[in-house]
Specification:
Radius of gyration: 25 Å
Largest sheet: 8 strands, mixed
Oligomer: single chain
Strand content: 5-15%
Shape: elongated
Length: 392
């Protein structure tokens, strides 16, 4: 298992994504672990090298006795990055992770490219609150605070429908070491970056949950946005764990904020090059090269338009995976009766990421919303191509 010893403490981590690409470190809430980011990672790894870790006292990381400080937790991040030979990184922290991010931006800004502070605060409320929580878990275990914490983590609607991700967070919370949890309670109790926020010069995004009772926008969120120079703000209709309650909106906010750096080189070049790369990946180099070679003075600009805008602008957007875009194209082409395009994308898809079960689901949707005749034609073409592939 991937562990690194930092400051005489063993930290668990997961490093995924583009080797040599821009690094994004994700730091979780108190009472959670690195798996809290599972809904974001599949999208992020296509653009970043993503480093998740369990904060000291949580998950598989060590939970030493005693009180912790935000400075110690921040130095854990720097030690982890050093051990993995990561000189600079973007950092996204939620709640406790956001407090760590503030410390890093104040004391080690040269290591940060960008900073995302989600559902967090410069100061976390009355010390009596955290002392009471520490006492509760040390005397009664994590079950003593689990219901209170879940009601802060999630909105009533999320809890009422038995959301599977919320249930997973509950299990992680119950499995957290009370000693480690109590140590992080102390860190949050003593954290106060209010006077130092104007020192943060790292480009910063503040993500606030409009239903967050732990770090409401009316207090902490507004302070962060006001005091951090040029901070950007995104509001989500979510409770404290906004990345779980609004996962797609959260990832969209991350991409909008982080990709200007990650895609800087691509943005300076003509998108036709990126478009040709995607076009070849999705339709096959042989088909694309043949189409480009057959272009004439009459249709050359049309071919360039397709590569630049269809493939280089729309298909390169991060909001949908290429597989999802492929399925949408198939359903749209079937609904419109554009069978030449349907066959082209289906044939290329079968050579890459699509499987028969994907086609069945798409064509059943077509049958319901675009009519049985369209679905029938689609099934015939699919059967023909699947039979050909099986023969080959």
């Amino acid at each position: 298992m991937p562990f690194v010893t930092v400051n005489n403490r063993r930290l668990f981590y997961r490093l995924e994504g583009i080797e040599g690409g821009p690094v994004l470190i994700l730091s979780h809430s108190i009472g959670a672990d690195h798996a809290m980011w599972s809904l974001q990672v599949p999208d992020l790894v296509s653009r970043f090298q993503v480093l998740r870790y369990d904060i000291r006292g949580h998950g598989a990381s060590d939970a030493p006795n005693g009180d912790y400080s935000i400075e110690e937790l921040g130095r854990d991040v720097l030690g982890l990055a050093d051990a993995l030979k990561i000189p600079k990184f973007a950092f996204c922290g939620l709640s406790l992770g956001g407090a760590i991010g503030q410390w890093l931006a104040i004391h080690a800004s040269y290591r940060l490219s960008r900073l995302v502070l989600a559902s967090t605060a410069p100061q976390f409320g009355p010390s009596e609150h955290w002392d009471a929580r520490r006492k509760a878990v040390l005397e009664g275990g994590m079950g003593a605070i689990v219901e209170m914490a879940m009601q802060r983590f999630f909105s009533p609607e999320t809890l009422a429908r038995g959301d599977v991700y919320a249930n997973a967070v509950r299990l992680v919370l119950l499995g957290t070491d009370p000693i480690g949890y109590a140590g992080c309670c102390t860190a949050l109790r003593d954290a106060d970056h209010t006077q130092q926020l104007p020192q943060i010069r790292v480009p910063t995004l503040v993500i606030a949950g409009d239903r967050d009772v732990s770090t409401p926008w009316s207090g902490p969120g507004k302070i962060l946005a006001r005091e951090i120079p040029n901070a950007q703000v995104v509001h989500l209709p979510a409770a404290h764990l906004s990345n779980i309650e609004r996962p797609r909106s959260f990832i969209a906010a991350l991409f909008d904020f982080l990709l200007p750096d990650a895609d800087d080189a691509d943005r300076k070049s003509d998108p036709i090059e990126a478009g040709l790369e995607v076009r070849r990946a999705m339709l096959g180099s042989e088909y694309v090269d043949r189409a480009m070679a057959a272009s004439t003075e009459f249709n050359r600009e049309f071919q360039e338009l397709i590569s630049r805008y269809v493939w280089g602008t729309v298909w390169t957007r991060p909001g949908l995976s290429r597989r999802m875009r492929r399925l949408l194209v198939l359903s749209t082409m079937a609904a419109l009766g554009r069978w030449e395009e349907f066959r082209l994308h289906l044939s290329a898809g079968l050579m890459n990421e699509l499987e028969p079960c994907d086609l069945k689901e798409v064509l059943l949707q077509v049958a319901v919303y675009a009519g049985v005749p369209a679905a029938n034609t689609g099934f015939h073409i699919a059967a023909e191509l699947l039979g050909r592939d099986q023969k080959e």
